[in-house]
Design a protein that fits this description.
By secondary structure, this protein is mainly alpha-helical. The chain has six helices and two strands; from the N terminus they run αααααββα.
Length: 129
């Protein structure tokens, strides 16, 4: 059964703040669909490295040994690949993991956490939200 009285919340659904850079990001995407990568090949190779959990040193060796053509990939090391990945999501700095330890007298336990306010900032800066 639905409530008989409708409650109106002033300001519900309105923007909390202006999203900066949306127009520029949208324009860049329309001009170059593969940006910040150079081509579909570049994106597929990066995806293959990431999904395969290829270690950084192995990615570097891939290029050092001449197995990949840097002119096709648009990057020649893990360092330059990470630069492209950071460009995809400039707000990812808010999603860093931190590591701490707690000692209960019997054992030391390691745990990981994120700063909640940074996660909220990340969500509020997303164009989709």
């Amino acid at each position: 059964m639905l409530p008989s009285k409708l409650t109106i919340y002033e300001g519900a659904g309105s923007s909390i703040r202006e999203v900066k850079g949306f127009e520029q990001e949208d324009s860049n995407l329309c001009q170059d669909q593969w940006s910040p990568f150079t081509s579909m090949h570049s994106v597929r190779l990066a995806s293959w490295f990431i999904e395969g959990k290829v270690p950084k040193l192995r990615i570097n060796k891939f290029f050092w040994n001449g197995l990949g053509d840097p002119s096709l990939a648009g990057y020649s090391s893990m360092h330059t690949l990470e630069y492209h990945l950071r460009a995809l999501d400039p707000h990812s700095v808010y999603l860093q993991w931190y590591e701490e330890q707690v000692d209960d007298g019997k054992r030391t336990l390691r745990f990981f956490y994120r700063i909640v306010l940074d996660c909220i900032r990340y969500l509020l800066d997303q164009i989709a939200y």
